[in-house]
Amino acid sequence: MDDSDGEDMAEAPALPVEIIVYILSFLHASDRKEASLVCRSWYYASQDLCFQVGVCLGSKLESLALPGSSITEASLLALLPCLTSLRRLDLRGLDSLFMSGAFLSREEHRQQVRSALCGLEELDLSDLRYLSDLTFNRLTGCTPHLHRLSLAGCHIAFEFDPYRGCPVGSVEGSSALLSLRNLRRLLMEQKSTLMALDLSRTSITPESLRTVAQVKDLVLQELILHGCKELTDYSMEVLVKHQPNLHKLDISGCTELTSRSVEAVARGLKSLRHLSLSRNWRITEKGIADVLSLSSLRSLYLSECLHISGTEMVKGLQVPNAPRAQLETLNLKSCTYIRDLGVFSLAQLLGDTLRELDLTSCVNVTDLSVCAIATYLQKLVVLRLGWCKEVTDWGLLGMVQKAECELSNEMGDKDLKFTRTFGNMGFFKPPRLAFEERPKLVTQNDLEQFRRQAGASLLALSRLQELDLSACSKLTDSSITQVVRYPDLHCLSLSMLSEITDASLASVAWHCRGLVSLTLSQCPGIRDHGVAQAAPYLHRLQHLSLSCCNNITDRSLFSLMQHCKRLKTLDISMCKNISVTAVDLLQSQLPFLENIHYKFIGGADPSL
Question: What phi and psi values does residue 484 have, to the nearest 5 degrees?
Fold first, then answer.
Protein backbone atom coordinates (compact mmCIF):
# COMPACT_ATOMS: atom_id res chain seq x y z
CA MET A 1 0.00 0.00 0.00
CA ASP A 2 2.81 2.35 0.87
CA ASP A 3 4.53 1.66 -2.44
CA SER A 4 1.41 2.31 -4.43
CA ASP A 5 0.82 5.57 -2.59
CA GLY A 6 4.35 6.64 -3.42
CA GLU A 7 3.82 5.79 -7.08
CA ASP A 8 0.55 7.77 -7.16
CA MET A 9 2.24 10.75 -5.63
CA ALA A 10 5.14 10.59 -8.06
CA GLU A 11 2.88 10.30 -11.09
CA ALA A 12 0.39 12.98 -10.01
CA PRO A 13 0.51 15.72 -12.68
CA ALA A 14 1.12 19.35 -11.73
CA LEU A 15 -1.90 21.63 -11.77
CA PRO A 16 -2.18 23.78 -14.90
CA VAL A 17 -1.36 27.43 -14.32
CA GLU A 18 -4.90 28.35 -15.35
CA ILE A 19 -6.34 26.26 -12.50
CA ILE A 20 -3.95 27.86 -9.97
CA VAL A 21 -4.90 31.32 -11.24
CA TYR A 22 -8.56 30.44 -10.77
CA ILE A 23 -7.91 29.28 -7.19
CA LEU A 24 -5.89 32.41 -6.36
CA SER A 25 -8.67 34.64 -7.70
CA PHE A 26 -10.69 33.87 -4.56
CA LEU A 27 -7.95 35.20 -2.27
CA HIS A 28 -7.32 38.70 -0.97
CA ALA A 29 -4.20 40.41 -2.33
CA SER A 30 -2.24 39.90 0.91
CA ASP A 31 -3.11 36.17 0.96
CA ARG A 32 -2.24 35.86 -2.71
CA LYS A 33 1.17 37.33 -1.95
CA GLU A 34 1.77 34.66 0.68
CA ALA A 35 0.57 31.93 -1.68
CA SER A 36 3.08 33.05 -4.31
CA LEU A 37 5.88 31.80 -2.01
CA VAL A 38 4.75 28.16 -2.19
CA CYS A 39 6.63 27.26 -5.36
CA ARG A 40 7.63 28.58 -8.76
CA SER A 41 4.39 27.67 -10.53
CA TRP A 42 2.31 29.39 -7.84
CA TYR A 43 4.52 32.46 -8.16
CA TYR A 44 4.01 32.63 -11.92
CA ALA A 45 0.27 32.18 -11.42
CA SER A 46 0.19 35.05 -8.90
CA GLN A 47 1.80 37.32 -11.54
CA ASP A 48 -1.00 36.70 -14.02
CA LEU A 49 -2.31 39.78 -15.79
CA CYS A 50 -5.73 39.45 -14.18
CA PHE A 51 -4.11 40.31 -10.84
CA GLN A 52 -2.13 43.31 -12.08
CA VAL A 53 -3.37 46.72 -10.97
CA GLY A 54 -4.94 48.71 -13.75
CA VAL A 55 -5.86 45.97 -16.23
CA CYS A 56 -9.48 46.08 -15.15
CA LEU A 57 -9.47 49.85 -15.50
CA GLY A 58 -7.79 49.81 -18.90
CA SER A 59 -7.98 53.17 -20.60
CA LYS A 60 -9.40 54.91 -17.51
CA LEU A 61 -6.35 54.59 -15.23
CA GLU A 62 -4.37 57.84 -14.91
CA SER A 63 -1.81 56.99 -12.21
CA LEU A 64 0.21 53.84 -11.59
CA ALA A 65 2.65 53.51 -8.67
CA LEU A 66 4.82 50.40 -8.27
CA PRO A 67 7.55 51.52 -5.84
CA GLY A 68 9.75 48.63 -4.77
CA SER A 69 7.33 46.00 -6.08
CA SER A 70 8.29 42.58 -7.44
CA ILE A 71 6.62 43.00 -10.82
CA THR A 72 8.54 41.33 -13.62
CA GLU A 73 9.67 42.92 -16.86
CA ALA A 74 7.32 40.72 -18.87
CA SER A 75 4.33 41.65 -16.71
CA LEU A 76 5.07 45.37 -16.92
CA LEU A 77 5.56 45.27 -20.69
CA ALA A 78 2.22 43.46 -21.02
CA LEU A 79 0.53 45.94 -18.69
CA LEU A 80 1.71 49.32 -19.98
CA PRO A 81 0.19 49.12 -23.50
CA CYS A 82 -3.25 48.76 -21.87
CA LEU A 83 -2.94 52.06 -19.97
CA THR A 84 -3.59 54.56 -22.72
CA SER A 85 -4.73 57.35 -20.36
CA LEU A 86 -1.78 57.11 -17.96
CA ARG A 87 -0.53 60.49 -16.75
CA ARG A 88 1.74 59.46 -13.86
CA LEU A 89 4.10 56.49 -13.63
CA ASP A 90 6.09 55.69 -10.48
CA LEU A 91 8.88 53.13 -10.85
CA ARG A 92 10.87 54.04 -7.73
CA GLY A 93 13.31 51.40 -6.56
CA LEU A 94 12.44 48.81 -9.23
CA ASP A 95 16.08 47.78 -9.65
CA SER A 96 15.16 44.36 -10.99
CA LEU A 97 13.75 45.97 -14.15
CA PHE A 98 16.97 47.79 -15.01
CA MET A 99 19.64 45.44 -13.64
CA SER A 100 20.05 43.45 -16.86
CA GLY A 101 20.03 46.51 -19.13
CA ALA A 102 17.57 44.76 -21.48
CA PHE A 103 14.43 46.69 -20.48
CA LEU A 104 12.65 47.93 -23.65
CA SER A 105 15.51 46.63 -25.81
CA ARG A 106 13.14 45.29 -28.48
CA GLU A 107 11.72 47.78 -30.96
CA GLU A 108 8.22 46.22 -30.99
CA HIS A 109 7.97 46.68 -27.22
CA ARG A 110 9.04 50.31 -27.49
CA GLN A 111 6.43 50.99 -30.15
CA GLN A 112 3.66 49.50 -28.02
CA VAL A 113 4.71 51.42 -24.90
CA ARG A 114 5.22 54.65 -26.86
CA SER A 115 1.70 54.56 -28.26
CA ALA A 116 0.28 54.12 -24.74
CA LEU A 117 2.53 56.59 -22.87
CA CYS A 118 2.58 59.42 -25.36
CA GLY A 119 0.48 61.47 -22.92
CA LEU A 120 2.51 60.65 -19.79
CA GLU A 121 3.27 63.80 -17.78
CA GLU A 122 5.01 62.58 -14.61
CA LEU A 123 7.78 59.98 -14.44
CA ASP A 124 9.41 58.96 -11.15
CA LEU A 125 12.67 57.01 -11.51
CA SER A 126 14.01 57.68 -8.01
CA ASP A 127 16.45 55.33 -6.28
CA LEU A 128 17.28 53.22 -9.34
CA ARG A 129 20.84 52.01 -8.85
CA TYR A 130 21.17 50.43 -12.29
CA LEU A 131 19.68 53.17 -14.45
CA SER A 132 21.98 53.80 -17.42
CA ASP A 133 22.03 56.02 -20.48
CA LEU A 134 20.68 53.19 -22.65
CA THR A 135 17.69 52.24 -20.48
CA PHE A 136 16.97 55.90 -19.68
CA ASN A 137 16.88 56.80 -23.37
CA ARG A 138 14.63 53.88 -24.24
CA LEU A 139 12.09 54.76 -21.55
CA THR A 140 12.07 58.55 -22.00
CA GLY A 141 11.88 58.03 -25.77
CA CYS A 142 8.41 56.59 -25.12
CA THR A 143 7.37 59.65 -23.07
CA PRO A 144 7.92 62.71 -25.30
CA HIS A 145 5.79 65.18 -23.32
CA LEU A 146 7.01 64.95 -19.73
CA HIS A 147 6.10 67.73 -17.29
CA ARG A 148 7.81 66.27 -14.22
CA LEU A 149 10.85 64.03 -13.91
CA SER A 150 12.37 62.64 -10.71
CA LEU A 151 15.86 61.13 -10.58
CA ALA A 152 16.30 61.48 -6.82
CA GLY A 153 18.89 59.11 -5.39
CA CYS A 154 20.03 57.83 -8.79
CA HIS A 155 23.73 57.24 -9.47
CA ILE A 156 24.37 60.00 -11.99
CA ALA A 157 27.92 60.66 -13.22
CA PHE A 158 28.23 64.43 -13.40
CA GLU A 159 31.97 64.86 -13.94
CA PHE A 160 33.87 61.57 -14.24
CA ASP A 161 33.06 58.07 -15.53
CA PRO A 162 34.51 55.64 -12.95
CA TYR A 163 33.98 52.63 -15.24
CA ARG A 164 35.89 54.00 -18.24
CA GLY A 165 38.32 56.23 -16.37
CA CYS A 166 37.51 59.26 -18.51
CA PRO A 167 35.44 62.45 -18.26
CA VAL A 168 31.71 62.08 -18.68
CA GLY A 169 30.55 62.71 -22.23
CA SER A 170 33.48 61.21 -24.10
CA VAL A 171 31.44 58.04 -24.71
CA GLU A 172 27.83 58.12 -25.87
CA GLY A 173 25.10 55.80 -24.64
CA SER A 174 26.77 54.22 -21.63
CA SER A 175 25.27 50.90 -20.54
CA ALA A 176 26.74 51.23 -17.05
CA LEU A 177 25.66 54.65 -15.78
CA LEU A 178 23.49 57.68 -16.34
CA SER A 179 25.51 60.74 -17.34
CA LEU A 180 25.02 64.48 -17.17
CA ARG A 181 25.40 64.65 -20.94
CA ASN A 182 22.44 62.34 -21.42
CA LEU A 183 20.31 64.24 -18.90
CA ARG A 184 21.10 67.51 -20.67
CA ARG A 185 20.07 65.93 -23.98
CA LEU A 186 16.66 65.05 -22.51
CA LEU A 187 16.22 68.57 -21.10
CA MET A 188 16.94 70.05 -24.53
CA GLU A 189 14.52 67.67 -26.26
CA GLN A 190 11.64 68.23 -23.82
CA LYS A 191 12.31 71.83 -22.79
CA SER A 192 8.96 72.98 -24.14
CA THR A 193 6.99 70.83 -21.67
CA LEU A 194 9.29 69.99 -18.75
CA MET A 195 8.50 72.13 -15.69
CA ALA A 196 9.70 70.15 -12.65
CA LEU A 197 12.98 68.33 -11.99
CA ASP A 198 14.05 66.40 -8.89
CA LEU A 199 17.78 65.70 -8.45
CA SER A 200 17.70 65.19 -4.68
CA ARG A 201 20.40 63.07 -3.02
CA THR A 202 22.60 63.05 -6.10
CA SER A 203 26.23 64.16 -6.31
CA ILE A 204 25.47 67.11 -8.55
CA THR A 205 28.29 69.67 -8.54
CA PRO A 206 28.10 73.46 -8.89
CA GLU A 207 29.33 73.22 -12.49
CA SER A 208 26.75 70.55 -13.32
CA LEU A 209 23.93 72.63 -11.83
CA ARG A 210 25.04 75.55 -13.96
CA THR A 211 24.92 73.29 -17.04
CA VAL A 212 21.36 72.26 -16.22
CA ALA A 213 20.21 75.81 -15.43
CA GLN A 214 21.66 77.22 -18.66
CA VAL A 215 19.85 74.86 -21.05
CA LYS A 216 18.47 77.23 -23.67
CA ASP A 217 14.71 77.92 -23.45
CA LEU A 218 14.30 75.59 -20.45
CA VAL A 219 11.86 77.24 -18.03
CA LEU A 220 11.62 75.28 -14.79
CA GLN A 221 8.92 75.98 -12.23
CA GLU A 222 10.01 73.40 -9.65
CA LEU A 223 13.50 72.25 -8.72
CA ILE A 224 14.21 69.83 -5.87
CA LEU A 225 17.84 69.60 -4.71
CA HIS A 226 17.38 68.12 -1.25
CA GLY A 227 20.58 66.68 0.19
CA CYS A 228 22.90 67.84 -2.63
CA LYS A 229 25.79 68.57 -0.31
CA GLU A 230 28.31 69.80 -2.88
CA LEU A 231 26.33 72.84 -3.99
CA THR A 232 27.70 76.28 -3.12
CA ASP A 233 26.38 79.82 -2.81
CA TYR A 234 27.78 80.66 -6.24
CA SER A 235 25.82 77.83 -7.86
CA MET A 236 22.62 79.20 -6.25
CA GLU A 237 23.35 82.67 -7.67
CA VAL A 238 23.80 81.19 -11.15
CA LEU A 239 20.61 79.14 -10.76
CA VAL A 240 18.35 82.06 -9.84
CA LYS A 241 19.87 84.13 -12.65
CA HIS A 242 19.03 81.58 -15.36
CA GLN A 243 15.80 80.14 -13.86
CA PRO A 244 13.98 83.21 -12.47
CA ASN A 245 10.51 81.66 -12.93
CA LEU A 246 10.88 79.02 -10.22
CA HIS A 247 7.75 78.61 -8.09
CA LYS A 248 9.18 75.88 -5.84
CA LEU A 249 12.76 75.48 -4.67
CA ASP A 250 13.95 72.84 -2.20
CA ILE A 251 17.58 73.24 -1.14
CA SER A 252 17.19 71.57 2.24
CA GLY A 253 20.16 69.58 3.49
CA CYS A 254 22.61 71.44 1.22
CA THR A 255 24.97 71.98 4.10
CA GLU A 256 27.50 74.22 2.30
CA LEU A 257 24.94 76.96 1.65
CA THR A 258 24.91 80.13 3.75
CA SER A 259 22.74 83.22 4.04
CA ARG A 260 24.27 84.43 0.79
CA SER A 261 22.09 81.87 -1.02
CA VAL A 262 19.02 83.11 0.85
CA GLU A 263 19.72 86.67 -0.26
CA ALA A 264 20.19 85.51 -3.87
CA VAL A 265 16.83 83.70 -3.76
CA ALA A 266 15.11 86.81 -2.38
CA ARG A 267 16.59 89.00 -5.13
CA GLY A 268 16.07 86.70 -8.10
CA LEU A 269 12.94 84.57 -7.56
CA LYS A 270 10.07 87.04 -7.42
CA SER A 271 7.46 84.38 -8.25
CA LEU A 272 8.58 81.89 -5.59
CA ARG A 273 5.73 80.18 -3.72
CA HIS A 274 7.45 77.34 -1.81
CA LEU A 275 10.93 77.49 -0.29
CA SER A 276 12.65 74.85 1.85
CA LEU A 277 15.87 75.70 3.69
CA SER A 278 15.65 72.92 6.28
CA ARG A 279 18.80 71.43 7.80
CA ASN A 280 21.05 74.15 6.41
CA TRP A 281 22.96 74.76 9.61
CA ARG A 282 25.08 77.61 8.24
CA ILE A 283 22.09 79.77 7.39
CA THR A 284 21.45 82.60 9.84
CA GLU A 285 18.63 85.13 10.04
CA LYS A 286 20.35 87.31 7.46
CA GLY A 287 18.22 87.45 4.35
CA ILE A 288 15.10 85.90 5.91
CA ALA A 289 13.41 89.30 6.12
CA ASP A 290 14.02 89.80 2.38
CA VAL A 291 12.53 86.37 1.60
CA LEU A 292 9.37 87.30 3.50
CA SER A 293 8.99 90.37 1.32
CA LEU A 294 8.10 88.06 -1.60
CA SER A 295 4.36 88.53 -1.86
CA SER A 296 3.91 85.22 -3.72
CA LEU A 297 5.54 83.08 -0.98
CA ARG A 298 3.12 80.60 0.59
CA SER A 299 5.32 77.94 2.27
CA LEU A 300 8.56 78.35 4.22
CA TYR A 301 10.45 75.41 5.78
CA LEU A 302 13.21 76.28 8.25
CA SER A 303 13.37 73.11 10.35
CA GLU A 304 16.72 72.48 12.05
CA CYS A 305 18.08 75.88 11.04
CA LEU A 306 19.69 76.33 14.41
CA HIS A 307 20.33 80.09 14.18
CA ILE A 308 16.75 81.13 13.44
CA SER A 309 15.04 83.01 16.28
CA GLY A 310 12.17 84.64 14.40
CA THR A 311 13.38 88.22 14.88
CA GLU A 312 14.15 88.87 11.20
CA MET A 313 10.97 87.08 10.15
CA VAL A 314 8.93 89.50 12.22
CA LYS A 315 10.84 92.45 10.76
CA GLY A 316 10.19 91.26 7.22
CA LEU A 317 6.45 90.98 7.89
CA GLN A 318 6.20 94.31 9.69
CA VAL A 319 7.55 96.60 6.97
CA PRO A 320 4.83 99.23 6.43
CA ASN A 321 3.39 99.79 2.95
CA ALA A 322 5.50 97.00 1.47
CA PRO A 323 4.57 93.63 -0.04
CA ARG A 324 4.88 90.69 2.32
CA ALA A 325 4.51 86.93 2.17
CA GLN A 326 1.06 85.44 2.74
CA LEU A 327 2.36 82.31 4.42
CA GLU A 328 0.08 79.30 4.62
CA THR A 329 2.74 76.85 5.90
CA LEU A 330 5.53 77.62 8.37
CA ASN A 331 7.88 74.91 9.63
CA LEU A 332 10.18 75.84 12.54
CA LYS A 333 10.90 72.33 13.81
CA SER A 334 13.95 72.15 16.11
CA CYS A 335 14.63 75.89 15.88
CA THR A 336 15.63 76.05 19.51
CA TYR A 337 16.05 79.84 19.57
CA ILE A 338 12.34 80.35 18.90
CA ARG A 339 10.69 81.77 22.03
CA ASP A 340 7.27 82.97 23.12
CA LEU A 341 7.80 86.54 21.92
CA GLY A 342 8.60 85.37 18.39
CA VAL A 343 5.62 83.01 18.25
CA PHE A 344 3.33 85.73 19.61
CA SER A 345 4.47 88.26 16.97
CA LEU A 346 4.28 85.74 14.11
CA ALA A 347 0.82 84.62 15.19
CA GLN A 348 -0.44 88.19 15.09
CA LEU A 349 1.07 88.87 11.67
CA LEU A 350 0.05 85.60 9.99
CA GLY A 351 -3.37 85.11 11.56
CA ASP A 352 -5.33 85.59 8.36
CA THR A 353 -3.39 83.17 6.18
CA LEU A 354 -1.49 80.51 8.17
CA ARG A 355 -2.92 76.98 7.89
CA GLU A 356 0.00 74.80 9.02
CA LEU A 357 2.43 75.47 11.88
CA ASP A 358 5.18 73.12 13.06
CA LEU A 359 6.92 73.98 16.35
CA THR A 360 8.14 70.47 17.12
CA SER A 361 11.12 70.45 19.52
CA CYS A 362 11.05 74.21 20.03
CA VAL A 363 11.99 73.63 23.63
CA ASN A 364 11.58 77.24 24.77
CA VAL A 365 7.94 77.46 23.70
CA THR A 366 5.57 77.66 26.68
CA ASP A 367 1.89 78.13 27.47
CA LEU A 368 2.06 81.76 26.32
CA SER A 369 2.76 80.60 22.77
CA VAL A 370 -0.16 78.17 22.88
CA CYS A 371 -2.48 80.98 24.01
CA ALA A 372 -1.21 83.21 21.18
CA ILE A 373 -1.82 80.43 18.65
CA ALA A 374 -5.34 79.84 19.94
CA THR A 375 -6.07 83.58 19.87
CA TYR A 376 -4.70 84.61 16.48
CA LEU A 377 -4.36 81.44 14.36
CA GLN A 378 -7.89 80.12 14.43
CA LYS A 379 -7.75 79.03 10.78
CA LEU A 380 -5.03 76.46 11.47
CA VAL A 381 -5.53 73.03 9.95
CA VAL A 382 -2.25 71.44 11.13
CA LEU A 383 -0.54 72.14 14.47
CA ARG A 384 2.53 70.27 15.72
CA LEU A 385 3.78 70.92 19.25
CA GLY A 386 5.62 67.64 19.86
CA TRP A 387 8.46 67.77 22.41
CA CYS A 388 7.50 71.26 23.61
CA LYS A 389 7.94 70.10 27.18
CA GLU A 390 7.05 73.43 28.82
CA VAL A 391 3.48 73.28 27.50
CA THR A 392 1.04 72.39 30.28
CA ASP A 393 -2.68 71.92 30.81
CA TRP A 394 -3.01 75.64 31.50
CA GLY A 395 -1.83 76.54 28.02
CA LEU A 396 -4.27 74.19 26.28
CA LEU A 397 -7.11 75.44 28.49
CA GLY A 398 -6.21 79.06 27.82
CA MET A 399 -6.04 79.90 31.50
CA VAL A 400 -3.30 81.90 33.23
CA GLN A 401 -1.65 79.84 35.91
CA LYS A 402 -1.38 81.74 39.15
CA ALA A 403 2.16 81.75 40.45
CA GLU A 404 2.68 80.20 43.82
CA CYS A 405 4.86 82.10 46.21
CA GLU A 406 6.70 80.10 48.76
CA LEU A 407 7.19 82.26 51.83
CA SER A 408 10.00 81.70 54.20
CA ASN A 409 9.30 80.49 57.71
CA GLU A 410 10.85 83.72 58.92
CA MET A 411 8.48 86.68 58.81
CA GLY A 412 9.31 88.91 55.88
CA ASP A 413 12.47 87.02 54.96
CA LYS A 414 12.56 86.75 51.11
CA ASP A 415 16.30 86.29 50.70
CA LEU A 416 18.21 83.06 50.27
CA LYS A 417 17.52 80.72 53.20
CA PHE A 418 20.35 79.46 55.36
CA THR A 419 20.55 75.84 56.32
CA ARG A 420 22.74 73.49 58.28
CA THR A 421 22.71 70.82 55.59
CA PHE A 422 26.22 69.49 55.13
CA GLY A 423 25.63 68.97 51.42
CA ASN A 424 25.39 72.72 50.98
CA MET A 425 28.55 73.26 53.00
CA GLY A 426 26.54 74.84 55.82
CA PHE A 427 26.00 78.16 54.07
CA PHE A 428 22.67 78.48 52.22
CA LYS A 429 20.01 76.58 50.40
CA PRO A 430 19.95 77.54 46.69
CA PRO A 431 16.61 78.46 45.05
CA ARG A 432 14.79 75.78 43.08
CA LEU A 433 15.34 75.87 39.35
CA ALA A 434 12.42 76.21 36.95
CA PHE A 435 12.78 72.73 35.44
CA GLU A 436 12.70 71.15 38.90
CA GLU A 437 9.20 72.40 39.63
CA ARG A 438 6.07 70.62 38.48
CA PRO A 439 3.21 72.78 37.22
CA LYS A 440 0.27 73.48 39.50
CA LEU A 441 -2.33 70.77 38.95
CA VAL A 442 -5.68 71.72 37.45
CA THR A 443 -8.50 71.21 39.93
CA GLN A 444 -12.20 70.61 39.38
CA ASN A 445 -12.89 74.25 40.30
CA ASP A 446 -10.45 75.34 37.59
CA LEU A 447 -12.32 73.23 35.03
CA GLU A 448 -15.61 74.80 36.03
CA GLN A 449 -14.06 78.22 35.51
CA PHE A 450 -12.75 77.09 32.11
CA ARG A 451 -16.23 76.05 30.99
CA ARG A 452 -17.64 79.46 31.96
CA GLN A 453 -14.93 81.61 30.42
CA ALA A 454 -14.55 82.67 26.78
CA GLY A 455 -10.76 82.50 26.81
CA ALA A 456 -8.33 81.49 24.09
CA SER A 457 -8.17 77.74 24.64
CA LEU A 458 -7.10 75.32 21.95
CA LEU A 459 -10.80 74.63 21.39
CA ALA A 460 -10.82 77.78 19.26
CA LEU A 461 -8.95 75.89 16.52
CA SER A 462 -12.13 74.28 15.26
CA ARG A 463 -10.70 73.50 11.80
CA LEU A 464 -7.83 71.30 13.00
CA GLN A 465 -7.24 68.13 11.00
CA GLU A 466 -3.83 67.19 12.47
CA LEU A 467 -2.56 67.71 16.03
CA ASP A 468 0.73 66.52 17.51
CA LEU A 469 1.24 66.78 21.27
CA SER A 470 3.85 64.03 21.57
CA ALA A 471 6.17 64.17 24.58
CA CYS A 472 4.47 67.24 26.09
CA SER A 473 4.95 65.40 29.35
CA LYS A 474 3.13 67.90 31.58
CA LEU A 475 -0.22 67.34 29.89
CA THR A 476 -2.87 65.33 31.74
CA ASP A 477 -6.48 64.22 31.34
CA SER A 478 -7.57 67.65 32.60
CA SER A 479 -6.76 69.36 29.28
CA ILE A 480 -7.01 66.47 26.81
CA THR A 481 -10.58 65.63 27.79
CA GLN A 482 -11.69 69.28 27.64
CA VAL A 483 -9.84 70.57 24.57
CA VAL A 484 -9.26 67.79 22.03
CA ARG A 485 -12.75 67.96 20.56
CA TYR A 486 -12.36 68.42 16.82
CA PRO A 487 -14.91 66.75 14.57
CA ASP A 488 -12.66 67.11 11.48
CA LEU A 489 -9.48 65.81 13.15
CA HIS A 490 -7.80 63.09 11.09
CA CYS A 491 -4.39 62.63 12.73
CA LEU A 492 -3.62 62.81 16.45
CA SER A 493 -0.44 61.98 18.32
CA LEU A 494 -0.45 61.73 22.12
CA SER A 495 2.59 59.48 22.46
CA MET A 496 4.81 59.68 25.55
CA LEU A 497 2.15 61.40 27.69
CA SER A 498 2.65 59.46 30.89
CA GLU A 499 -0.15 61.25 32.79
CA ILE A 500 -3.08 60.53 30.49
CA THR A 501 -5.43 57.61 31.13
CA ASP A 502 -8.39 55.82 29.59
CA ALA A 503 -10.47 58.95 30.21
CA SER A 504 -8.49 60.84 27.55
CA LEU A 505 -8.76 58.01 25.02
CA ALA A 506 -12.51 57.65 25.52
CA SER A 507 -13.05 61.41 25.25
CA VAL A 508 -10.95 61.69 22.09
CA ALA A 509 -12.82 58.83 20.43
CA TRP A 510 -16.20 60.32 21.30
CA HIS A 511 -15.43 63.83 20.05
CA CYS A 512 -13.06 63.01 17.14
CA ARG A 513 -14.87 60.25 15.27
CA GLY A 514 -13.18 61.05 11.97
CA LEU A 515 -9.74 59.95 13.20
CA VAL A 516 -7.70 58.06 10.61
CA SER A 517 -4.38 57.96 12.50
CA LEU A 518 -3.92 57.74 16.29
CA THR A 519 -0.58 57.42 18.09
CA LEU A 520 -0.55 56.44 21.78
CA SER A 521 2.93 54.92 22.09
CA GLN A 522 4.48 54.84 25.57
CA CYS A 523 1.28 55.87 27.36
CA PRO A 524 1.30 53.57 30.41
CA GLY A 525 -2.09 54.83 31.59
CA ILE A 526 -3.92 53.39 28.58
CA ARG A 527 -5.61 50.07 29.40
CA ASP A 528 -8.01 47.59 27.84
CA HIS A 529 -10.99 49.43 29.30
CA GLY A 530 -10.08 52.60 27.42
CA VAL A 531 -9.60 50.76 24.12
CA ALA A 532 -12.95 49.00 24.61
CA GLN A 533 -14.65 52.37 25.21
CA ALA A 534 -12.95 54.07 22.25
CA ALA A 535 -13.07 51.40 19.52
CA PRO A 536 -16.85 51.61 18.80
CA TYR A 537 -16.43 55.26 17.73
CA LEU A 538 -13.29 54.80 15.60
CA HIS A 539 -14.75 53.13 12.53
CA ARG A 540 -12.56 55.20 10.19
CA LEU A 541 -9.28 54.42 11.98
CA GLN A 542 -6.58 53.11 9.63
CA HIS A 543 -3.33 53.59 11.58
CA LEU A 544 -2.93 52.91 15.30
CA SER A 545 0.19 52.80 17.47
CA LEU A 546 0.07 51.30 20.96
CA SER A 547 3.72 50.31 21.29
CA CYS A 548 5.13 50.10 24.82
CA CYS A 549 1.63 50.32 26.37
CA ASN A 550 2.26 47.58 28.91
CA ASN A 551 -1.30 47.51 30.27
CA ILE A 552 -2.75 46.50 26.90
CA THR A 553 -3.72 42.82 26.58
CA ASP A 554 -5.40 40.53 24.05
CA ARG A 555 -8.76 42.04 25.01
CA SER A 556 -7.80 45.26 23.22
CA LEU A 557 -7.09 43.33 20.02
CA PHE A 558 -10.52 41.71 20.23
CA SER A 559 -12.08 45.19 20.50
CA LEU A 560 -10.17 46.31 17.42
CA MET A 561 -11.29 43.21 15.50
CA GLN A 562 -14.90 43.96 16.28
CA HIS A 563 -15.04 47.67 15.51
CA CYS A 564 -11.99 48.92 13.53
CA LYS A 565 -12.48 47.03 10.29
CA ARG A 566 -10.54 49.56 8.18
CA LEU A 567 -7.30 49.23 10.14
CA LYS A 568 -4.25 49.10 7.83
CA THR A 569 -1.28 49.43 10.18
CA LEU A 570 -0.96 48.52 13.86
CA ASP A 571 2.05 48.86 16.15
CA ILE A 572 1.93 46.84 19.37
CA SER A 573 5.68 46.34 19.78
CA MET A 574 6.91 45.66 23.31
CA CYS A 575 3.40 45.15 24.72
CA LYS A 576 4.29 42.36 27.12
CA ASN A 577 0.72 41.20 27.76
CA ILE A 578 -0.24 40.48 24.16
CA SER A 579 0.07 36.97 22.75
CA VAL A 580 1.12 35.86 19.28
CA THR A 581 -2.10 33.83 19.02
CA ALA A 582 -4.19 37.00 19.33
CA VAL A 583 -2.05 38.71 16.71
CA ASP A 584 -2.59 35.85 14.25
CA LEU A 585 -6.32 35.98 14.86
CA LEU A 586 -6.33 39.76 14.30
CA GLN A 587 -4.56 39.34 10.97
CA SER A 588 -7.12 36.81 9.82
CA GLN A 589 -10.10 38.99 10.80
CA LEU A 590 -9.13 42.43 9.41
CA PRO A 591 -9.25 42.39 5.59
CA PHE A 592 -7.35 45.65 5.03
CA LEU A 593 -4.54 45.08 7.55
CA GLU A 594 -1.23 45.45 5.69
CA ASN A 595 1.42 45.87 8.39
CA ILE A 596 1.48 44.87 12.01
CA HIS A 597 4.54 45.49 14.18
CA TYR A 598 4.69 43.14 17.13
CA LYS A 599 8.35 42.78 18.09
CA PHE A 600 9.05 41.68 21.65
CA ILE A 601 5.42 41.06 22.60
CA GLY A 602 4.42 38.57 25.27
CA GLY A 603 7.27 39.56 27.58
CA ALA A 604 10.10 38.72 25.14
CA ASP A 605 13.47 40.12 26.16
CA PRO A 606 14.50 42.88 23.69
CA SER A 607 18.14 42.48 24.69
CA LEU A 608 18.32 38.98 23.19
Answer: -80, 80
